Inverse folding.
């Protein structure tokens, strides 16, 4: 099977067995009844909540829209119940889920996402680039082939204020070609590929504190270097567009086009970054990096700095594979000579998060804290990408950055291990 039940509900779960799955299935069984001569089922109140909880216990790697994936899982539960009202084999649910997802993915349609990114359109970008099996084509003007259909979609919207393109006139246009079974999955895949592209751009651009700035936001810049345009439209391979296949950005405001110095050098570095990411042999390692870079750039897209602060902390937790303060601080500050100072700084940020989150108030000096979090996140991401010690598995990296960096402690440990080796040796 391609899917499996997660062994643990979460990293800090007290219950480390699979009992939660069996308990949920038992409760789901009590909410189902066969109807229509055993060919269909009816639900009692609370069934959907239980299935939602059970779905969170499934580990899979199907690239489908989450809502569609959940609906496939829901049908798998129903199908399993019709075949066996006692759910004697919980894995049968997963088999039906795998079958449903594979059938969905057998259907392939060609879609094109049309939008813009805030790289100034005077740059000579490559004609196209493939990112996550999506082909991104760049142009200085709006693609003519979809211009009329895009305008029709925009004209149908009730909120024309979102479509003031004044500042976007210098943006670079992009057309993302994607194969997908449905338009929701197509949009998800296309946006993820652009987010990864923007995230890699962001990682290679130096960010410096501007001590002469008049505002905290300008002194501690953390906005995404390459932002999305405000309007995204999706079109089919028959050049048709459909109502509802338009999305607009509500988390950000339209800024100026990014004019990057030494663009040719930066473009060359971009290709090296993607090469380093894609050469990872372990799919989990590669997917981990892609997901974290995407989450990072999405956090920086937030215009509300308090929301950005919370999202950056989520990225740091995922990046250190921890949600307890001690492990996060230890792993995030592993790379610094002044680890004790860095731990104190990061701990201050963690305390601010714990105080601010429950009561809904903005952390003090939030722009500065965001700037600091970005430094930690980018240092760790660059360490993962460079992989100078040639780790092949993710857990090897986490084990490495969990080790103490105190030289005295390291020497004492080595001496102790030598004694043990001498004791057990011939």
């Amino acid at each position: 099977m391609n899917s499996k039940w997660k062994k643990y509900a979460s990293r800090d779960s007290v219950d480390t067995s699979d009992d939660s799955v069996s308990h949920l299935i038992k409760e789901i069984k009590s909410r189902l009844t066969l109807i229509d001569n055993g060919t269909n089922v009816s639900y009692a109140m609370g069934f959907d909540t239980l299935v939602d909880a059970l779905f969170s216990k499934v580990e899979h790697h199907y690239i489908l829209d989450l809502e569609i994936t959940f609906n496939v899982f829901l049908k798998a539960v129903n199908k399993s119940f019709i075949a066996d009202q006692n759910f004697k084999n919980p894995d049968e649910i997963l088999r039906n889920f795998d079958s449903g997802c594979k059938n969905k993915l057998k259907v392939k349609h060609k879609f094109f996402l049309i939008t813009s990114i805030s790289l100034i359109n005077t740059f000579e970008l490559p004609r196209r680039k493939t990112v996550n099996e999506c082909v991104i084509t760049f142009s200085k003007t709006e693609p003519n082939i979809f211009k009329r259909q895009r305008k029709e979609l925009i004209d149908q919207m009730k909120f024309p204020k979102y479509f003031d393109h004044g500042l976007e006139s210098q943006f670079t246009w992009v057309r993302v070609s994607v194969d997908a079974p449905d338009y929701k999955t197509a949009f998800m895949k296309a946006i993820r590929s652009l987010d990864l592209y923007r995230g890699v751009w962001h990682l290679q651009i130096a960010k410096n504190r501007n001590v002469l700035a008049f505002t905290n936001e300008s002194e501690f810049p953390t906005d995404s270097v390459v932002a999305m345009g405000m309007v995204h439209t999706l079109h089919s391979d028959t050049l048709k567009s459909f109502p509802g296949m338009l999305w607009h950005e509500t988390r950000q405001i339209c800024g100026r086009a990014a004019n990057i110095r030494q663009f040719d050098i930066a473009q060359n570095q971009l290709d090296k970054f993607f090469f380093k990411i894609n050469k990872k042999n372990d799919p989990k390692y590669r997917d981990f990096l892609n997901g974290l870079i995407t989450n990072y750039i999405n956090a920086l897209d937030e215009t509300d700095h308090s929301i950005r602060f919370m999202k950056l902390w989520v990225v740091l937790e995922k990046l250190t594979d921890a949600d307890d303060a001690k492990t996060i601080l230890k792993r995030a500050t592993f790379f610094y000579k002044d680890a004790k100072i860095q731990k104190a700084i990061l701990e201050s940020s963690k305390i601010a998060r714990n105080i601010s989150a429950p009561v809904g108030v903005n952390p003090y000096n939030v722009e500065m804290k965001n700037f600091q979090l970005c430094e930690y996140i980018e240092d760790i991401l660059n360490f993962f990408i460079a992989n100078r010690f040639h780790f092949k598995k993710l857990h090897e990296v986490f084990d490495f950055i969990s080790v103490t960096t105190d030289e005295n402690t390291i020497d004492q440990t080595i001496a102790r291990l030598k004694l043990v080796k001498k004791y057990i040796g011939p």
Summary: The two ends are 47 Å apart (CA to CA).
